[in-house]
Amino acid sequence: MARIGVFVCHCGENISATVDCEKVAAVAAEFPGVVYSVDYKYMCSDPGQTLVKEAIIKHRLDGVVVSACSPRMHEPTFRRATEEAGLNPYLCEMANIREHCSWVHEKGDAATGKAIDTIRTLVEKVKRNTPLQPIRVPITKTALVIGGGVAGIQAALDIANAGHKVIMVERDPSIGGHMSQLSETFPTLDCSQCILTPRMVEVAQNKNIKLYSYAEVESVDGFIGNFKVKIRKKAKSIDESLCTGCGECTTKCPMKKIPSEFEQFLGKRPAIYIPFPQAVPNKPVIDKERCTYYLKGKCKICEKVCPTKAIRFDQEDEFIDVEVGAIVVATGIDIKGTDFFPEYGYGKYKDVITGLQFERLASASGPTGGEIRRPSDGTIPKKIVFVKCAGSRDPAKGIEYCSKICCMYTAKHTMLYKHKVHDGTAYVFYMDIRAGGKNYEEFVRRAISEDGAQYIRGRVSKIYEKNGKLMVYGADTLLSARAVEIEADMVVLATASVASSGAEELAQRLHTSYDQYNFFSEAHPKLKPIETNTGGIFLAGACQFPKDIPESVMMASGAAGKVACLFANDELTREPIVAEVNRKGAPYYSTCVSCFMCIPVCPYQAIDREQIKDRNGNLIKELARVNPGLCQGCGTCVALCRSKSIELHGFSNSQMMAEIIAVLN
Amino acid sequence: MRIGLYPGCSLTGSSREYKESVVVVAKALGIILEEVPDWNCCGATAAHNLNHELALALPTRILALAEQAGFDKLVIPCAACYSRLTITQDELNNNPELKAKIIAHLGMDFKGTMVIQNAIQFIQDDILPILPAKITKPFDYKVACYYGCLLVRPHGILKFDRPEDPQTMDAVISAIGGTPIEWAFKNECCGAAMSIARTDVVGKLSGNIVKDAVDRGAEAIIVACPMCHSNLDMRRPNINKAMGEKFEQPVIYITQAIGLAIGLSPKELGLQRHFVAVNLPEKKVVETIMEEK
What we know:
The structure holds two protein chains of two kinds.
Chain A: E1 4-9, H1 21-29, E2 34-40, H2 46-58, E3 63-68, H3 71-84, E4 92-96, H4 98-102, H5 109-127, E5 135-138, E6 142-146, H6 150-161, E7 165-169, E8 184-185, E9 190-191, H7 192-205, E10 209-212, E11 215-223, E12 226-233, H8 248-252, E13 258-259, E14 268-269, E15 272-273, E16 285-286, H9 292-296, H10 301-305, E17 318-324, E18 326-329, E19 333-335, E20 352-354, H11 355-362, E21 383-390, H12 406-420, E22 425-430, H13 440-449, E23 454-457, E24 460-466, E25 469-476, E26 482-488, E27 490-495, E28 497-499, H14 503-510, E29 537-539, H15 549-567, E30 571-574, E31 579-581, H16 598-601, E32 607-613, E33 619-626, H17 636-640, E34 646-648, H18 653-664
Helix pairs in contact in A: 1-5, 2-3, 5-18, 6-7, 6-15, 11-12, 12-13
Chain B: E1 3-5, H1 16-28, E2 33-35, H2 44-50, H3 52-69, E3 73-75, H4 79-93, H5 96-106, E4 115-117, H6 119-127, E5 142-145, H7 155-158, H8 168-175, E6 179-180, H9 194-197, H10 199-215, E7 220-223, H11 226-234, H12 236-243, E8 251-253, H13 254-261, H14 285-292
Parallel strand pairs in B: 1-2, 1-3, 3-4, 5-6, 5-7, 7-8
Helix pairs in contact in B: 1-13, 2-3, 3-4, 3-5, 10-12
């Protein structure tokens, strides 16, 4: 006869305000098999746990039902308490009467009744629980970092410096990300490249880091500690072992007029190119869609001029299989282009540019050598209008969130402009000024009071071109409350930051969740901001939400710390909630009828065929076999098995049936 | 296919030349437009400022009559009528309770399935495909296509063209041999309903529109809305006064421009009814085309 204990938690008033906990405990005491039932204000508190432990010993309980919050919150707490009292932890179950009952229902008999029913089902289940032992699996102590921007670089360096191997995958020809495109950084106005390039070089030189640039993650299988990743190394059309990065090919390439992605299309690049002088690796790639040879079958000038004969026109994409124990996603953000804004001309006005384009204009390495010049005619603009919240915070545009970085970089832009064009005027249309951060508010104040930026609180309704000027129609919504018309030479839109292109596909490949804006979802908004819901996959930087440089670096170091914690152990303990194909004695061996329908349906490729042979090596029977290291306990095979030969530990058919019957009765 | 026509009040009064030109152009191309029998006022600006249900009931009656008549679609040249009828059908289709209530008020059947088109959509679907063969006198002028506020907004309901810098009328003008200019005031406010009460405001707002079009070299302004037309045309003295310039460029309905291109006479198209005289210079294009032939 079972000896079950039921422990009903009030969770302060979270449960007891809606559910009559005393009554629940009293009714549960009468359930068949329940020998002890009690309610308590905070079961998760130290005295509450002691109550559970003492009851297990005193009443010789062989099963425990804690009816409280979600098992996602406190199941580990009570299983540990159960274990400390000498009972197998898997004999403890949680009945969720908070998230599934008190939080979602009105106070009354119905809510109390539902709590009682919930407990009844779990009591029936616990009676059929069997002791389980955790599974131990080895950890591959190599990390994969996806994305080589500042977050990816920081994460890779931190993990490598902790003594672990790192594989970095960057889809562009060079690492560096958006930070390498920036001119100066707020709030200190130090040169972005000057502080980033040493880190980029460190990545290249670190013995623990293997960098695959111009590469993408093709597929990901496996689980925490044991991921199997296929990397597609896109063909650069050069032999990297021979190329010295001399750049002869890039200067001789006849296709010189291709808009440069790095320069945000304000500058040009050849078809064989190194995106920028400090690129890591400093080796060119051929843009096959623009290269004359690939398009027309003639040219090959780069091949002729290459002193080391490193050009390989017939090179194909290469696939590399790697095994890693943890993955850090650091894929960053993109920003919306000016063509996203009908009211600002659908991108047809050359002198309406994005903030990132302004960074290139202001950068000493940019297309104008750091002089602020209009893209249309190269003249120096005397009036620039900056428009903040372009797309952001605008439900009509489908982007309801604040892009977070624009307030600060716009203030920076006005300063950079004033420092370069002393007689110029910068106007800033804003909704709010969000300058939360160390020295941020002071920085914005400096832009206004020292560098004379004209801040106008209001939105811009329309921009159009007239006689070479940009007519900006806006509103000043403060005291003067007037329509504003500015004849500007240039307009800079602080366009919305959005998830990096391809983020959705990558999230699907990683089997991790993402939000409606395609930003990667963290496991918990406050307490697990770096983890994802998929074990072993961590987030760094703006792939989770727009972030500035310090925040990205902080998060990257946090992710690296998480990886280091994981790698601190040689083995990983996993939940024993796995499926198993039953085994019987000869001559049946199993009730498995060898249909192997379970193999294709398993999402984790955890099932294979096991051969039963006699002593002479003759095949007697083939059976399905579940690899407990790969099984995630989803139960798909159990549902599909025709002969009911697969059982999911902890969720067996008899347990499930007992629960259903308990509800129906 | 049976195509209904809902003219509304403007097209029988201040802008009767719009209706005349729609009908003669359609007729010249072998398209018959049948007027909605016993139609009433759409309510336009006045009704929805006073009584929401009245503002819905008026257009619903027109749509119900069009359904009864068995039209496959309803062409509404007036932008305000087009806006009211489209918005009403959308609102009632998304609110079954309100729909039942309005139907009860009217005591008529109303399904809410009518395909409603403005003049430009009608031109795109039914006229453009058969137009090229009929062009005898290409409309070879540099013009500014002015859409006004109601034709393209609210985009979520009308789903017609793009809300800023629309393109459909420009495409029609290109198809009849004209050159639409790139300009900035395609859907700027003309002053619309202020036409009677505050002519000074209309003078300034419409003046901005005319001035930008003329500054960019437009020889005429093309419209598809009676309010746009009356403000840019009838209020030209106020415009000239407000802008301190004398503008002589005419304002022509899109259907009139098409009519000229297919060789209809200015009189049939009602061009003589405009306040700003339509004195477009004769172009020699006709001869060159003849020579080519």
